[in-house]
Amino acid sequence: MSPLKIDSLSLSVSKGELVGIIGPNGAGKSTLLRLCAGLLKPDSGVISIAGHPISNYLPNQLAQQLAWLEQISSLSWPLLCEEVVELGLLPYSFSKSETQLRVTNALSRCHATQFAKRSFDSLSQGEQMRVLLARLLNAPCSLLLADEPVASLDLKSQHETLIQLREAASEQAVVIVLHDLMLATRYCTRLILIDGGQKILDGDPKDVVSSSLLVKSFDVNIAWVSHLSFSKKASK
Amino acid sequence: MNKTILWCLVLVLACIDLQLGPTELELDKALTQVLASIKSFIIKDISMATTNNIAATILIEIRLPRTLLAICVGAGLALSGAAMQSLLRNPLASPDLLGLSQGAVLGAVLTLYWGFSSIHPLILPLTAIASALALMLLLIKLSSQIGRLQGLILAGIALSAVLSAFTALALNLAPNPYALQEIYFWLLGSVANRSFPDVFILLPCLLLGGFLLLRETSTFDALSLGENTAATLGFPLTQRQPYILTGLGLCIGACVAVSGSIAFVGLLVPHFVRGLARGLPSRVLVLSIPAGAALLLLADICVQMLPTAQELQLGVLTAGLGGPFFLWLLLGGKRQWL
Fold this sequence. Notes:
Chain A has helices spanning about 30-35, 60-65, 80-85, 95-110, 125-135, 155-170, 180-185, 205-210, 210-220, 225-235; strands spanning about 20, 50, 50-55, 65-70, 145, 175, 190-195, 200-205. Chain A is an alpha/beta fold. In chain A, helix 4 (about 95-110) packs across helix 5 (about 125-135). By secondary structure, chain B is mainly α.
C-alpha cells in the first residue's frame, strides 16, 4: 500500500517516556507509527503492547490499549466539541455520568472547557488541536500515538500541545512524530532518528541532536545555539 | 424530544393518508366495521363477518397497505441514505450512489421486459431484492480488494453506470409501447395499488437491514473522525463494512422492489435531520427513520389530493419538490450543516 518501508527495526517504549521520532521526509516515521497503531500489518516481526502481540487483540481490546491522533484531522460533520471528546471513549463502556465527568476533565485539562458547546468547525486550528488533544488524552489507555501533532500550529499552540503530551507521559507511554528539532529536544525524553526505514540513533535528545549522523540524515548543516546562552545574551 | 414529535407527525399523516382515496369513506364507520369483523373472527361467528363491510375491505385491503408501504419505504430509504452518507463521509451520498438501487431497478425492469411479472405479482419484487443482494455481494468483494472508501465510491459509480445502461437498453428495445409505459411508470416510483403481500416482502428485509445498520451506529460515529482514527477506536472498516453493506443491500433492495425508484428521499432526509438535530451520525440515523416516513406520507397525501387527470407517481413529486427544497437548504441559513 505505502511505498515506505521499515526494515529490521526494533525498539521498546515504556510508561513515563515521551518519545519523539525524527527523520527526513519519507524516512518511514509515519509508517512506524501506523504499524504501532495496528493500522498497517507488518510483513514480518511482532509488535506487542502490554506483553501481547497486537495481532492477538480484538479490535475493541486493542482500542482500549492505545489512542491515536491523526496528522490531519477534519470532521465529516459539524459536531460539538464535547461530542468530539466523547468519541475518544467509544472503546470503553463507561456509565453516562462517568463519561460526562471524563469529558469535562479532559476539556479542562486541555484548556478547552469554553469550547464544549461550540461547533468544532467554528474553531481555529490551534483551538481544534486542544479539543483533539482532549479527545486523545480522554482515553485511559497505556499508549498514545500522535503523528505530527504540532505541524500546523502557531508557536504558542505548539508549546502548549507538547506540554500536554509531556504531562500525559508521566502516566502513559507517548510516541510522537516531530519535524521541529528544537521542540523535539526541549520536550521529548528520548529521540529516535529514523532514515531509510532504519533506526539510526536512539537515546537522550541532547546526544541525538549533537550527533554527526543527524547532519548526515537530514543533509543540511545544523548549528545549535544553546537555549541558556541565548537567553543570557538577550538579557544583557 | 425531536424523535417523539416526528413519530407523532408520522401518526397524524398516516391517519390523513388512510382517509384519502377515490371512494368516499367515513373512517369511523369503517373502523367500527373492522373492529366488528375482528371480534367476529375471534368468536368465530362467520355469519356476522360476511355482512356488509365494503368500507372495511377498502380500508384494510387497499388503503392500509398503501399507507404502511409509504411509511416503511420512506423510513427505509432515509435510513439507508443516512447510513450511506455516514459510511462514505460524504454529504452527496444517497441510496443510489453505490449502484444498489440501480441493481434492484434492473432486476425489476427485466421481469417487466420479459413479462415474467405478469405470471405472479411477487416475481417482480423478489427479483429486485435478489439482484440488489447480488450486487451487494459484488460490492463487498470489491471493497475487500480495494480497501479504501474512495475506491469503493468510484467502483460503485462504475457499477451503477453499467446497470443504468442496461435499464436504458431494456427501455430502448421494449417490445411494445405498453411494456415501455409499464416500465417507465414503474421507474417513477409509487406506493399506489399495492397489497399486503408487498408489505410482507418488504418488512422482514427492512427489519433485518435496519437492525444491521442501527447496530453500527458507533462505527458511524467513530468514522466522523476519519477511517484511521475509527480503526484505532476499535471499528476497523475492513471488518464492519460487510455488515453495513448487507444492511444497505437489504433496505434499499426491498424498498426499490416494492415502490420503484423514489428519488431524493434518501439524499434529502438526512440533510434535513442534520439541520434539525446536531450532527452525530448515530442521531441522524435514528431521526431519519420517522422523518423519511413522514416525508413519503406527505408526498403520498399530495399526489392523492392534487387534481391531476392521472394520479402523479410519487417519484415525480419527491424529485420535483425535493430538488428546490435541497437548494433552499444549501443557500439558506442551514448552509453550515451541508
